[in-house]
Structure of LEA type 2 family protein:
Amino acid sequence: MFKRLSWILLIPILLFGACCKPEMPQFVGIGNFNIESLGGNQSVVSADVTYYNQNKFDLKLRKADLDIYLADKYVGKTVLDTLIEIPKLDTFNVPVKITVDVKSLVSNAISALLFNQVKIKIQGTAKVGRSGVMMNLPVLYEGNQKVSF
């Protein structure tokens, strides 16, 4: 009788623990910049964005739709539509391609040259989940990124 009662009490605790909402991974930095194509009005820049997953469980990133701002000026958008496995309590890289406005990029490059850092803002949504349960979570990061030339 006691064993049956303990299992009945244990099942809701396990289910509640398994269904907790994941926290968005924390932004660490950006690296591996590469200009993929130059155009008159728009260019494509690729980079690796590094995050840290502070959750105690693995996650999957299925989709992200993010706006990128440098020095409070909108420079472009990135859309990620690839499944990325995110390890628990570890860092991981997300490869992104950003379509940027060339005028904004030039003005921000001058600022980065003068101060060796640039203020970055990333804002949008990401579809994250585990065990087949996906949810849209807001993404918002603002901070200074050191730039070395």
The two ends are 71 Å apart (CA to CA).
